[in-house]
Design brief:
With 108 residues, the protein is α+β, with helices and mostly antiparallel strands. It has one domain (4-105). The protein is built from 3 helices and 4 strands. The protein has helices at 15-21, 50-64, 102-105, and strands at 4-11, 36-39, 80-84, 92-98. The protein has a 4-stranded antiparallel β-sheet with strand order 2-1-4-3, with helices on one face. β3 and β4 form a beta hairpin. The radius of gyration is 15 Å and the shape is elongated. The protein starts with a strand and ends with a helix.
Length: 108
Amino acid sequence: MKQVKITAVRKADYRDLQSLYENPIEHTCDVEVGMEWVSREGERPEGFCPEAWKSVKEFVEGLARGGGDFFDGWMKNPFSAMISCNDGFRPVSFLVETVEGEKENENV
């Protein structure tokens, strides 16, 4: 199986929605832009948010098995995906990609 890198590339913060709909909470998402994790054997990396994993899991597992080209050419690199976590108040966008470079992926 291939190793898959997960990189946090953007984090939004919808304060207007939070003030309208969210109950006050003390602890929110710890993910910061630029953080990276590597999935081995298609498993959730240690320290990766369990809730965000629910959003990226299918794509990580597919890439780990050598798959790609999700949604018929959606991504410039067919061995990657851009997936957001399911937090509607402060979603994080993750780039999910195989660790091997594009040239190696072309031989898959």
